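User: Could you go from structure to sequence for me? I need the amino acid at each position, not a summary. Structure tokens:
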């Protein structure tokens, strides 16, 4: 029960915890790899968190589907994101993924 409460509360602090992460550099790297090895325009972002990578990749023309076990983090993603980013939630997912 305590673990679930901590996991739920983490959503409030997710972006703060990762505030020093260079999302732009990582999105550029993902874009480079995808252009080199695929011709796709859709990305499944597993464990998307609040969607920081997704938001940058959408600006590069990709269609993103974000999936995260933490529905509270997804609600932050949904609130902050563009209307054409889709959100999905793992349901009945075991805690040990």
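Assistant: Here is the amino acid at each position, in order:
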């Amino acid at each position: 029960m305590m673990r679930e409460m901590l996991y739920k509360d983490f959503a409030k602090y997710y972006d703060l915890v990762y505030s020093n992460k260079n999302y732009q550099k990582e999105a550029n790297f993902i874009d480079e790899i995808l252009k080199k090895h695929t011709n796709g325009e859709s990305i499944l972002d597993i464990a998307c968190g609040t969607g920081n990578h997704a938001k940058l990749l959408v600006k590069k023309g990709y269609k993103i589907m974000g999936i995260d076990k933490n529905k509270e983090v997804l609600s932050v993603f949904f609130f902050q994101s563009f209307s054409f980013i889709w959100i999905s939630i793992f349901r009945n997912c075991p805690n040990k993924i």
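One structural detail worth keeping in mind: The first strand starts at residue 42 and ends at 46.
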